[in-house]
Amino acid sequence: MNVRRLHAALAAVLLGVAGIAIADSVPRDTSHAEIMRGRYLVEAGDCAACHTADGGQPFAGNRGVPTPFGTIYSSNLTPDDDTGIGTWSDEDFWRAMHDGVSRDGRHLYPAFPYPWYTKLSHDDVLAIKAYLDTLPAVRSVARAPELPLPLRWRGSLAVWNALFFKEGEFVPDPSRSAEWNRGAYLVEGLGHCGACHSPKNVLGGVKRGDRFEGGMGEGWFATSLRRSRGEGLGDWSADEIVAYLKTGANDRARAMGPMAEVVEHSTRHLSDADLHAIAVYLKDLPGDDGAAHAQQASTDHDVLTRGRLVYLDQCAGCHMENGEGVAGVFPPIKGNTGLHASDTTSLARLVLEGAHSARTPDKPEGFAMPGFAGKLSDRDVADVLTYVRASFGNGAGPVETSKIASVRKSLHEAP
Amino acid sequence: MSVARRLPPVDVVIVGFGWTGSIVAKELADTGLQVLAIERGEFRDTIPDFSPTFIQDELRYAVRNSIFEEPHRETLTFRNDMRQDALPMRHLGSFRPGSGAGGAGVHWNGQTWRFLPTDFQLRSHITQRYGAKFIPADMTIQDWGVTYDELEPCYDRFEYLCGISGKAGNVAGKMQEGGNPFEAPRKRDYPLPPLKRSAATVLFDKAAREAGFHPFPCPAANTSKPYKNIYGVQMGQCTYCGYCEWFGCGNYSKSSPQACVFPALLGRDNFELRTRSEVLRVNLDSTGKRATGVTYVDTMGREFEQPAGLVVMCAYAQHNVHLLLLSRIGEPYDPVANKGVVGRNYAYQITSSVDVFVDDILNPFMGAGALGQGVDDFNGDLFDHGPQGFIGGGYLALWTTGGRPILQNHVPKGTPKWGSAFKRALAENYLKSASIATHGSVMSYRDAYLDLDPTYRDVYGNPMLRLTFDYHANEHRMSDFLTERATDIAKAMRPRALHAKKREGRYSIVPYQTTHNTGGAIMGTDPRTSVVNRYLQVWDVPNMFVMGACLFPQNAGYNPTGTVGALTYWGVDAMKRYLRNPAPLVSA
Question: What is the pLDDT of residue A153?
């Protein structure tokens, strides 16, 4: 028994009746190895993405997380007694991660991805807690959620949970390899890839049948992770997936927008073995039969001609006249799976407001696409997107001017 | 003003964050030291600051000087000679220093040369070849204290940092077909092949050969192909948009601190960049032999004292000199007694051009800042100066830097300056004209120097820097000689018309000529005639180093940035040695 534990035990005895409640908060005897594992898991879960505000202290929360219903402000994960999780027991933390229920018994909003974290093992959850306990305590109170009235009533979340939440730890599939199971555990659990990459219903619940077919996250459309033709991960090899998650880019694509942050804060820290496991699992997701998302590329001569002129004027300098991009610098248009996305929100955002690509030790440049909102009209953007989706061997459908207009409008409204 | 607030000390403070500052920061941060760079201007990055969606705006950048030093904030006074009263330069003219992260490394063209071996030993070489009497009495040229062979590895590092496009002419003494036959031996070829040639440079190449000269593709800090540099930073590929000089590159393909150094430096725990902070002086301890740090002021007017173990001066050439004078480091130069060091040997360059009007369509808009074909037959001491009676030389080149609508056009001599005849001439000649440039050295003289102005004060109440400079007969003779050789080539291009524009009369600070100001804090082997020793360490203050073109004892016939980059690596290696054993690297 170490000294700290002895003190805690003495305190429990001295406090008598209250001892039972106090015993729950006695610090566990955590090892350095467990703390380091916890740090790795915190990175794998990309907790900082939501729980560190721009310019704020790490994990002190209060970052606005946009949801389709309003903005929710993240909680303070530092061990501050009053405003953080300083007084939380391991079991309090487990309940939050596993059941989506806060220490005070209130339901947490599913912007916190407990529908995925419920898959985590008890040991992993405690390792995460062990690491968070080592952070400097920061006093920080999150702002109240900006939600319409019915959703501010937390009881509504019990209904949501009944409909969309299935509690339960990950159960390995014994017919699959250990690597596949590790990949599944990371993708379905801590990685919470489906939080963005799966389509959601009007209440924000994942549509079960269409998992990983692409969905909205933070105002961007996260592409399909399935082996759809053209779209999604298409025919990416496992090594290409690993390179993308490790360095932020491969020969086909660069991580931009929210995915750039995922790479910078999370996936680049993962071991090659874990990244490969993720790739193996993703490669094994069911492909589409092609019919559901069959797209018909535009054949409108006028639109394509106008689009081509915009492309030559504005895009070809970097992406080249033949659409092949510049290896290692500017991604190709030709065969670009992201460009085939069924939902063109991200494409519209990319052209209108631009974005930086992920900065990683392997690729420190953070190459950026400039925004064209001040230069191109809605119709110009629609035409050039329609053109690139129909050219260089690509086969994705046209983009309507009205779509660009609505995305442009949403950018002005963004917080 | 209130008393400066004293900040926690750092290991290294760097004054200015352009090419030299960012390289020094990267190299010293790599050793694990806590490095702070203080920059008077804004932070700037490729996107959003130089975005290709708006950067090709000639009126905003080239005409209205959007990204240069602002004279209302920092300028100098100027006079041609010591009998005159100097007046403040209220508009940028003859030269255009940068301001903000990346410095002038953002808006340069990218013409990246090595100097010749004899350039570094100019006084001893000229004396040996032509006799001491060949050097005019008032010409104060000096040897640099460093040799080309010593700098060769440093040139190599800078070229492989930038991703220079070019063709070697001399690899380790072995002559290479297609390169500059007059260049000094280099260890290896350039990292990238030459840029694609423009139609005009093809015409020039043929004509120069006919004239008996030896043309070659000029070395360019515009990437001919994608390139990954020595810091693991990937660069793009030049698109020949023709907007290099006066513009930032939005395409990651013109070498700059942003494109080549920042990604490997910014965001590191042991490096901090403090922008909008202007250093007012370097502070010394009571012995005057040790720098304790710097004092700077922010935009709110608050003064801060930043203690540091090592101070590295990386501001623009004349600003380094100004800070040395304001900090009372080194003895100010006195031109009457020819004594003192700080401000000594200011030099510049002398340029001229020959416009050529041809029948071929040249499409000048497809250009790059350093896309050019050069002739080096008349640079340095590559030819016998005995019969010429002057010292120095320069290169001739036809650059296709671009065909911008406002400033980059040529009309034949005698064309009206405005009206329908001007428009007609412009339309007729825009696609069918080019210009051959001469780029000549300027020697240093006793009466060309920098000191503190006795009358005018800057926005902080400090005396402004005063520049006293004029061209001497030696430079005019040399420049006229180069202009004649350029005319020989122009004639061999069989033009409809040509217009030789000699550099005539006194130096004027009004028309733009070149931002190649040098000297004032020169390097050397004698503390009586140089501010820093051959390792760029201040003679009087060993924990202080000076970078940049202010180190040049006189100017050579090449654009200076290649040599500034090489000297930076030379200096930073010396700093690393100094940090291991803090003492003067040369005993005075």
Answer: 78
pLDDT at B2: 59
How crowded is residue A26: how many other Cβ atoms within 10 Å of its Cβ?
17
Q: Which residues of chain B have pLDDT under 70?
A: 1-2
Candidates A254, A244, A220; CA nearest to A365 is: A254
* pLDDT of A9 above 80: no
pTM: 0.92
Contacts of A20 (CB under 8 A, 6+ apart): none
Tell me the pLDDT of chain A averaged across its residues.
89
Question: Is B107 annotated in the active site?
Answer: no
Question: At a CB cut-off of 8 Å and minimum separation 6, what does B350 contact?
Answer: B394, B440, B441, B442, B471, B475, B476, B478, B479, B503, B513
Q: Which CATH architecture describes the domain A178-283?
A: Orthogonal Bundle (1.10)
**CA B555 to CA B78: how far, in whole Å?**
19
Architecture of domain A301-413: Orthogonal Bundle (1.10)
Contacts of B263 in chain A (CB under 8 A): 359, 364-366
Which residues lie across from B6 on neighbouring strands? B305
Q: Give the residue extent of every domain in chain A.
A: 1-29, 31-164, 178-283, 301-413
What CATH code would you report for B5-53+61-580?
3.50.50.60
The tokens describing B269, both together, are: 């725990």
Q: For the residues A153-167, what does the mean pLDDT come to?
A: 83
The helix (run of H) or strand (run of E) holding residue B291 is strand B291-298
Tokens of B491: 């004639």
Contacts of B264 in chain A (CB under 8 A): 364
CA distance A207 to A33: 38
Q: Does B56 touch chain A (CB under 8 A)?
A: no
Cα B562 to Cα B219: distance, rounded to the nearest angstrom: 10
| Higher per-residue pLDDT: A26 or A95 | A95
**Where residue A205 falls among pLDDT bands split at 50, 70, 90?**
confident
Cβ contact, residue pair A365, B54, below 8 Å = no
